[in-house]
Amino acid sequence: MNVSPELDRRFREAAARENLLDVAYDLVDTPVGRLFVATTDRGLCRIAYDTEPEQELESLAQTFGLRVLRSAKPIDPARRELDEYFDGKRQQFDLPVDVALLADFNRLVLGELALVPYGDVVTYGELAARVSRPGAARAVGTVMNRNPLPIVLPCHRVIGANGKLVGYAGGLERKEQLLRLEGALL
Amino acid sequence: MTPPPFERFYEQHREEIFGFLVRRLGRQRAEDAFQETFLKALRAYPSLRHGEHLRAWAYTIASRVAIDEHRRPRADADLPELESLDSRPAFAQLEHLAEELPPTERAAVVLRYGYDLDYAEIGAALGSNATAARQAASAGIRRLRMKELP
Predict the structure, then answer these.
(1) pLDDT the model gives residue B137
(2) DSSP-assigned beta bridge partners for residue A30
(3) Could you tell me the pTM of the whole model?
(4) What is the ipTM of this complex?
(5) Do B34 and A11 touch (CB under 8 A)?
(6) What pLDDT score does B83 carry?
(7) Is B50 on the interface with A (CB under 8 A)?
(8) Which residues of chain B are within 8 Å of residue A69 when distances are taken between CB atoms?
(9) Nearest-Cα residue of chain A relative to residue B19
(10) Is A155 a residue of the active site?
(11) The CATH number of B83-150 is which of 1.10.10.10, 2.40.50.100, 1.20.1740.10, 1.10.357.10?
């Protein structure tokens, strides 16, 4: 028998309200496409482009626990900040992030990445130098490629030494789109 | 096999569990019971040791919630006819008794005699059919009887 959207929504809300979820997620529409956005009670834990939800759920369940459920409310703060960002009204995200389970080096690099300001770019080598690992440009590139929170942790602001955009997990077109939004590309 | 992410479990079972609750409780009370069933499932989910018989597991929780709902007096609700309400609560004891049975037989016995589900419902819960459910329940009962003998 069909479960009405209203009943379904009520359950999903109650599950989040009663703190029964390891991970809540929802889909968020943006100018760069539909994003898969997930949060734990500690903070945002995943943003993904063009996702296969099935795979994403499995991977979240393995990392954070089996109680992964789509629930709109816990994602609302992220939805709001992303909307403001794409409207050009927000240059910095105030969302807590949950990166506790990442490897130390990844966390270190992403922490440094978070300091690269809106509208600015750095090279992979510069970012490596900032975490006292000059010469680790390639390793930094790998960390960017595996960034669990693109846009909020702005790996789109990291480019090649020759000024080329090089790569982006969401595709170069999106990297360009984000940098243009921020006024970093003329 | 580990249980799937809860979203998958919920999507797979919400419709039939809701249907089951509506048959037991009427639509209005079924809505509350539906939420309660899946909240209970969420609470217990991390302690599941494997992903087998999740459907029977969901039915077991829903049955328990339906029984609690029945017991709760409610002036405003449209109460469906209750048959043999008082003979039912043996379920807790029965679950304990049936602990050593193979999983399918255990589920069939508990759902049939503990929760008074009919064989078609049990068949649905176990992913088989009424005939298989009847066989599993009677095999379970036979095994229990043998255990009782000295």
Answers:
(1) 87
(2) A33
(3) 0.80
(4) 0.92
(5) yes
(6) 46
(7) no
(8) 6-7, 10, 42
(9) A1
(10) yes
(11) 1.10.10.10
